[in-house]
């Protein structure tokens, strides 16, 4: 999920290097390329905040501190569409972007950009789309995946039950070296998770689109190696972007070929999994259970079977938050670069879809 207004864990600030205050080399309050407005008013360009999740005031404060003179607008302040040259977006209908003739940058406030890609037709040609890449977010994701995996491997639910029943009983847990964890997606999130799990002694394999070499990770790539990647896994963690190739990837056929007793963790997007196939695979005993941070429809309806399944735990898309404090510098820097005509960071390949 993308976005919090209040840092959920202020203690984290000690572990994240504060970037040096950003010094703009261009005056973001004025753009000499802008043609004067017909009414004679001085034209300035503005960054528009479009998110359903927060009112944007925290981003306004952080970004205007980074870029003095920045004209930051929320939808109620949008004004003349010709004055908008950048949009900061999260889970907001993006069709209106088609009406912004001078738009140059669409910055996703999340790491995932499927919410932008679905509205691609509304984004004028030549507009650059960027996403968040932030170590503070990556660390949260690895932490969440570890939590989900260890709860399963070390029998947290079973011990809770025993505790409630005041029963003092041992349950065996496998050694890390005997557990194979498969990570689908070896990018920013998956790559970090693979490194950490490998350092902890797990057997780690990873799957990506193109070939990779990662120390301590058995790397597979391409759709034709997906089954080979899955076959030995005791735990599978999905950290893929949602694209036409990765939608419905985990379906009945794939579950049937997975190692009996495999545990499924999804922290990417709900649409990677055919939900009824997952339930059937768990009910049949093939799959041990699942921890799912994401679902096909969020929030899930009240009668969604996941709520009632004893071997499925859901989370409300909270594995890794976008922390405005750690992400504002990269957004500000990209806005400055865009104004200066310099190459941007964390650019999304719209053809590839991530
Ligand atoms: P990256 O773009 O850095 O990495 C994506 C990885 O997936 C790459 O290794 C890529 O392969 C691989 N991949 C893409 N398509 C395919 C394919 N068809 N077959 C095999 N591998 C493929 O993304 P991030 O790691 O930053 O983020 C991953 C996803 O996590 C996001 O897109 C988002 O949906 C989700 N996310 C969820 C959050 C939450 O709170 N639940 C928070 C943040 C992100 P290659 O390296 O070869 O290109
Ligand atoms: C995010 C995402 O960044 O889910 O939160 O993509």
Q: What's the short version?
A:
By secondary structure, the protein is an alpha/beta fold. It is 27% helix and 16% strand. The protein is elongated and about 80 Å long.
Task: Describe the structure in your own words.
About 4% of the residues have low confidence. It is built from ten helices and twelve strands. The strands form two sheets. It has a seven-stranded parallel β-sheet with strand order 8-7-6-9-10-11-12. It has two domains: 151 residues, NAD(P)-binding Rossmann-like Domain (Rossmann fold, 3-Layer(aba) Sandwich), CATH 3.40.50.720; 185 residues, NAD(P)-binding Rossmann-like Domain (Rossmann fold, 3-Layer(aba) Sandwich). It is α/β, with parallel strands linked by helices. 27% of the residues lie in helices and 16% in strands.
Shape: elongated
Q: What helical percentage do the residues reach?
A: 25-40%
> Can you tell me the residue ranges where pLDDT is under 50 for at least 5 consecutive residues?
5-19
DSSP summary, beta strand count: 12
CATH fold topology of the largest domain: Rossmann fold
CATH superfamily of the largest domain: NAD(P)-binding Rossmann-like Domain
- CATH A-level architecture of the largest domain: 3-Layer(aba) Sandwich
Please give the count of helices. 10
CATH class of the largest domain: Alpha Beta
Our count of domains comes out at: 2
